[in-house]
Amino acid sequence: MTKKEILDAYSFRHACKAFDETKKIPKEDFDFILETGRLSPSSFGMEQWKFIVVQNDELKAKIRPHCWNQVQITSCSELVVVLAKKILRSTHPYVTEMLTYKNWDEDRKKAYLERYKNHNDWRSDEELVHWSMKQGYIAAANMLTSAAMIGIDSCPIEGMDKAKVQEVLGIDTTKYEIALLLTFGYRLNPQPQKTRLSLEKIVEYR
Ligand SMILES: Cc1cc2nc3c(=O)[nH]c(=O)nc-3n(C[C@H](O)[C@H](O)[C@H](O)COP(=O)(O)O)c2cc1C
Questions:
Q1: In ligand 1, which atom is closest to the CA atom of 195?
Q2: CA nearest neighbour of 32 among 155, 152, 124, 112
């Protein structure tokens, strides 16, 4: 892709407020979007995310009232719930297993785990899940952009009563917390003009 094509995709992406319910994203395209989430970077490579794809219309309808009744939830072609893992203390088997699947020698794994422990284990549960959620947002951003690159619209959704959405989805909240929702589909209306602060206003060189 040229730089112009890439920037065009960034301009094409906007918070789509209503999707055309008659249009369904082809499986191959949606798999591509998920793949860009999977390949995203994460702190310590812990892949702190899990993606729940809600395809059941009745379930979407149950979720919508807890998301400020936003129409994107039911009009989208695909609804992705980005979960943040909470099982991230250095002693948790998830963390140790994540290290074993890396092709490293024992000394390297030991040193990595020690650094991981110093980086994380002092955090409160709340801080730990926030750290985890930040990684989910990286995957989410990549999925939003990759969707735009193939002409698919999206809207990230944070406007929700998280506890209620978790309840509807039966999320095991000892292990996961919702970071945000992502809706994907095809726009019903033309996108509004994009407004952004200029680079001069947001970049400082030293
Ligand atoms: C983490 C996050 C959560 C958001 N939650 C919502 C939401 O619940 N509903 C909504 O309509 N837009 C939501 N947005 C979209 C933003 O309002 C939108 O990205 C911003 O106003 C800039 O507009 P643009 O994306 O169209 O350029 C969210 C965006 C982000 C990044």
A1: 27
A2: 152
- Dihedral angle, C-alpha 125, 129, 131, 136, nearest 10 °: 170
Pocket of ligand 1 (CB under 6 A): 14-15, 17, 70, 155-159, 180, 194
Digit-coded pLDDT (tens) for 6-65? 999 999 999 999 999 999 999 999 999 999 999 999 999 999 999 999 999 999 999 999
Top mutation candidate among 153, 155, 195 for ligand 1, by most atoms within 8 Å of CB: 155
Q: Please tell me the distance from the alpha carbon of residue 37 to that of residue 50, in angstroms, as a whole number.
A: 10
* Residue 54 in tokens: 């809600």
How far apart are the CA of 116 and the centre of ligand 1, in A? 32
Q: Which atom of ligand 1 is nearest to the CA of 160?
A: 8
Q: Which residues contact 67 (CB under 8 A, 6 or more apart)?
A: 73, 157, 159, 160, 161, 165, 181
The C-alpha atoms of residue 93 and residue 72 are separated, in whole angstroms, by 37
> How many Å apart are CA 102 and CA 91, to the nearest integer?
17
Instruction: Kindly report, residue by residue over 70-92, the tens digit of the pLDDT.
Output: 999 999 999 999 999 999 999 99
List the domains of the chain with CATH numbers: 3-85+135-202 (3.40.109.10)
8 Å CB contact between 30 and 133: no
**Residue whose CA is closest, atom 16 of ligand 1?**
15
